[in-house]
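Researcher: First entry.
Model:
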Amino acid sequence: MFRRGSLALVAGTATTALTLAACSPGSSGEPDGGGSEDSATVTFRLWDDAAAAAYEESFEAFTEANPDITVDVETVPWANYWDRLPQDIGSGTMADIFWTNTSNFGIYADNGNLIDIGAEIGADQDELVQSAVDLYTRNGAEWGVPQLTDSIALYYNADLLAEAGVDPSSLQWDPSGTNDTFLGAALDLTVDASGVTAAEDDFDAENIEQYAFNAQNDLQAIYIDFLGSNGARYQDGDQYAFNTPEGAESFQYLVDLINTYHVSPSAAETNQNGDLARDLFVQGKMALFQSGQYSLPHMADAEFDWGIAPMLEGPDGRVGVVHSVAAVGNAETEHPEATLEVLRWLSTAEGQEPLGANGAAFPAAVDAQSSFVDYWTEQGVDTSEFIAAAEGETIAAPLGPRANAGANAIAPYFEEMFAGRLPVQEALQQAQDAANEAIAE
């Protein structure tokens, strides 16, 4: 359990900006001033400033061991990253190595734009989180070197739970109601302005001061985990497959938490502000907040005792999503051997250790994960539940060469469903049909 105090600098650490040099593959053919004819500059692109600073530290150690290879790091903001990526690949100006996520790598793998990591360096990699490796394995080939991973657990306000007599590690949701311990706890943890809980008859749902949980239209932290915990799927291969009886039960449960029981903020609010629930938790106005490691830095402002418990358990147990960011190699690099050497480095615990050392990200190299754990242990935070979630049963993150098109097609139907304006079964059918049509175009 953690009390506010020693986390004061964490939020700043995770958002530190750093201006970094960069150049395109086409500009790195000549040796740097004073370098030998055999020297090479490998370019590396990503979207996160805090991670970029960690990579600068990592690549200093790499260049000490490989003095003929320099790595230039370029940050492109997330808002522009995915627009520039296809343009730069098409024009031949893409970096030698670049970050990608599971929703975006498939089309480049299928188009022959990426280096086959498994064929080129498979045996030279350190042990990486297997669920992350699986995410970047497509058509029998391994296309990325996982760098960071996110798994899901349950942040809790210890004071509010103690007052209500709730043990966060024992909470189970069950659409049949047979083994459900979560709903009753959520009703007790939701309180109106008069101090009346949602479990009481005179509860005022129009004037809520404290919510129980962050049920909302959030794929990574909420609904894909509920699907997995109820034996449902999000996708079957590249096809969307959430419109099943188990899928409908999962979404109906979430929608009811919002619109029937009022234990979560309205979708009218969370559809517009995806961070609303996180902010309410930090302000002490939400008792339970299911999320990933990426929310840790935001806990710096919490002025109460908080802790991290296992994610909610469903009928099929605790089944969460593990998302991963990977480094992929540009198949058109002008420096193939140097690029492979850098990719080998990025697959080692030594190469990834700086990513976890400032607490900003959880390395995918198993032996580097202690750097992240040790950082947060020094802050008084036990992150073991995230490791347990990553090592446990998981449901795949969104995949496929047109996963973004599928997500865009789904969005309007899910917004209406979570708002209670479109029945769950109808919304799922329409969303699934639209998504599968979108990825087929």
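Researcher: Second entry.
Model:
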Amino acid sequence: MKTNWQIFQPYFKPLEVPAKTILLEEGKVSKTMYFIEKGCLRTWVNHDGKEITTHFFFEGDSVSSMESFRTNRPSLYSIESIEPTFLQTLTQHDFQIILDNSPELKKALEEHLFRRLFESQQMAFSYLKNNPKKRYDELLERHPHIVQRVPQHYIASYLGITSVSLSRIRNRR
């Protein structure tokens, strides 16, 4: 959620994690919201032992399994750092205090959730309608920074293809 972080400043706790650190495991309840100062995170699901990347997050983004964070139900996905990452963290309890006292945050949260839903729908429809090359072209057009910063095997997973297929698509460009 890109919002004015000053609202959270008194509640933040800094956290620095190396690459490949699991911040939340699929099936566990999310107790923390993460605000990325520097670095990159991804969300992913486990499908028969295979990791399928569902989203990437960068500087200025907030990340949590919002559904789990707000309902105390198990998360549908894992959150992991892709590169060394500097975060500010916020607990459920502190988030609720802020939310109860901040109508502008409630509005920002609504907008954030709508944006995430819209992005998820776009990706789902892209899987249904487009071939892998078209999905890659859309990724380059909408999010070129992902291709510049994220390892190819995560991008392939995100696009629903193998790393070999992604290499072929990239070589044909």
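Model: Note on the second entry: The radius of gyration is 17 Å.
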